[in-house]
Amino acid sequence: MSSKPANESAIFNTFARAPVSFERGEGVRLFTEQGDEYIDFAAGIAVNALGHAHPHLVKALNDQASKLWHVSNLYEIPGQEMLAKRLCNATFAEKVFFTNSGAEALECSLKTARRFHFNNGNPERVEILTFEGAFHGRTLATIAAGGQEKYLEGFGEKTPGFIQLPFLDEDALDAAINENTAAILIEPVQGEGGIRPVPASFLRRIRELCDENGLLLIYDEIQTGVGRTGKLFAYQWSGAAPDIMAIAKGIGGGFPLGACLATIEAAEGMTVGTHGTTFGGNPLAVAVGNAVLDVVLEEGFMDRVQQSALYLRQQLAELSDAFPDLIEEIRGEGLLLGIKCKIPNVKVVTAFREAGLLSVPAGENVVRLLPPLIVSVDDIREAVEKMQAAMTKLKNTEKQD
């Protein structure tokens, strides 16, 4: 056996962590123990939808924590029923299964789709059509759904039943549908894949194909949901409702919470014993989830998100014009925006951080900007000033190189 290195971390070496840690947060800002302040345009990778230490969320969590933390799903959980009904009332859905994470919500979605066909006498219909560039999670099934080699490598044979198609290729989609197809899975905006929006017309075409061929349409709204694009869920811009939808991240406002939403018909095969979870939808999680909905469903909240998003987009367009040698384009929807870079995106993420702004790298050499939905015009203005300072420094450095 090897001896333990004296200074080696006890944590798996699976993360390339930035050399900074935080003591506390307030709104869109994070603070280190040394008192350094950062504007948070990462938001825990689109998780902290209402920023840090939002008073309504803090109160909801504290109130519930003093009463009951966990009982398991052997018993009724009133907060769970309340949150499920509110999600159904605000969306296409009629049934909800709560999970702890987005990957679990996707797993439930995939099982629900396959079980639907089994329940209707078509057990051979198990194949899920997905799209290149997608990211659906880190479990064995969800990395197979995403199909990206860098996530599949080293974990044995790829979980069967997933077929990746070229992004936005309608002909390839038409040709791939056969008697074994169960569902089509898509992100309305690819997040990890480089902030690539799917046109509303393409989503509507997928809906038509599903209806024509008896397939289920599954949306992955883990990153796009809960107001991120300016509506509660991104699919609502297109009018093409799914049969099943996986959500997480923003619905918990920072507390681990996800959910699989479905129509009654799509979920009819998920009977007692077909699926389960110990922690999913526990009293703490659903208390926070209900508190998040209290805020984001307030009249005028989405209007303010759309206004902030428009202002940020305008400011980023000016930034792009000012640094044409560094920025190729600005892309995305709402407060899910990306800067496609002409230099390595990790250099830009690092420069932003050194200037006091947090961001997230993504595919296609994109830097993701995911500010909390409560971000103000003043916050955006200050964030863009930090971006300008970082870009100026990068431009000078690139000239010297």
- As an assembly, this protein is single chain
How does the major sheet shape up? 7 strands, mixed
Relative strand content: 15-25%
**Taking Cα atoms only, what radius of gyration do you get, to the nearest Å?**
21 Å
CATH homologous superfamily descriptor of the largest domain: Type I PLP-dependent aspartate aminotransferase-like (Major domain)
Low-confidence stretches: none
What is the tally of beta strands?
17
Our measurement of the CA-to-CA distance between the termini, rounded to an integer number of angstroms, reads 46 Å
Strand order of the largest sheet: 4-12-11-10-7-5-6
Return the domain count: 2
| Large-scale geometry | globular
- The CATH architecture designation of the largest domain is 3-Layer(aba) Sandwich
Structural class: alpha/beta
What CATH calls the topology of the largest domain is: Aspartate Aminotransferase, domain 2
Average predicted confidence as pLDDT: 96
Estimate percent helicity: 25-40%
List the secondary-structure elements in sequence, H or E: EEEHHHEHEHHEHEEEHEEEHHEEHEEEH
Helical stretch count? 12
- The CATH class of the largest domain: Alpha Beta
